[in-house]
Amino acid sequence: RSNNSGLILCTIILTISYFILNLSASYSIIDSNLIIPRIISFLLPINIFLFTFVEKKKLKIIFIYMLIILAEVGIIRFLYYLIEFPESKIITQFYTEFPNLATSFLLFTQNLYGIFLKTSLINNIPVISLFTIIIILVLMILKFVSSRDVRNGGYLFATISVFLAVCSSDPVPSLMLFFTTAGLILLITTIETSFSMAYIDELTGLHGRRSLNETLSTLTKNYAIAMLDIDHFKKFNDRYGHKTGDQVLKMVAAKLSEVSGGAKSFRFGGEEFTTIFPGKTSREAKPYMEEYRIILESTEFIVRSPIRRSSTSKSRGKSASNDRKTVTITVSIGIAEYGGNQTKPEKVLKAADKILYKAKHLGRNRVEIQKKK
Prior knowledge:
This protein has about 375 residues and is α+β, with helices and mostly antiparallel strands. The protein contains 14 helices and 7 strands. Helix 1 (about 5-25) runs antiparallel to helix 2 (about 35-50). It has 2 domains: about 1-200, no CATH class; about 210-370, Reverse transcriptase/Diguanylate cyclase domain (Alpha-Beta Plaits), CATH 3.30.70. Helices cover about 65% and strands about 10% of the residues. It has a 5-stranded mixed beta sheet, sandwiched between helices. The chain has a two-stranded antiparallel ribbon with strand order 4-5. The two termini are about 50 Å apart.
């Protein structure tokens, strides 16, 4: 729920915008210059982009965004009322009570009105709105490509759908079609995000413990399970810090995800990982894990010294090479297989864990398999 706050806010503002735009399209004779749709076409993409920065469990930020949304709705309504009904009782009283302020405000609204009346070649969309949405789309694409986050993809395609709705020459059916499409995109994004939260380990990108348990329940016969543990990881964490430790976990997981032989890898917890080889014995699975162990051992991992020597620019340049250190990351691996009294995946997993500790006892940085009795 907390990770989807931005998606929820996006859905709320899409709903509000749809009803305002639909009402404006239905009563276009009243809003002769369609100022409300033009203002919304400018504000909506900006709001959606801002929602991409909503962090989980930041309730204060969410509350502020809600206030911003309400303020925007109020401002749009007030500007519309001021421009379309300048001789109303409320506006007349405002000019009587605050003449200087009213004159300045009228000049501001007229300039604003003029900006939104300057249309582009695309179905009378304001030039400022067109430039804004193009910039927002470029920023969203860059953010999606860099993060590979499904939520950023959802925001991107929802914004494209909204852009198509604004560009349409037939507003009423197009609003329903494209805003419904945007809503479905956000719904699918929410489902995918919830799946990732439940099944994907956020740090490493591997499938997590819950996904492992479900995979184990589907196994029947002829499979091998490997348990893997990073050697001396706790000492490494204590020496270089948890942030560096997280980078090690990411690297180990990234290499593990590339293991061939039909392997399915999971983060078991902490510095432990599990790899399942369907249709293979321990001996058949061992070469794949041995290859992985060698690749990992030969990969240089550079860490910064925990103590920064100096903060001056000259000394930083001189000590840059001294600040970095290359370390070797190794793992111990134990592999067990289905068969004998190990007819349940849980027993095979437990046996692999025992073999893992045997590998650590024999000196670490090695692959051990269960001997057949």
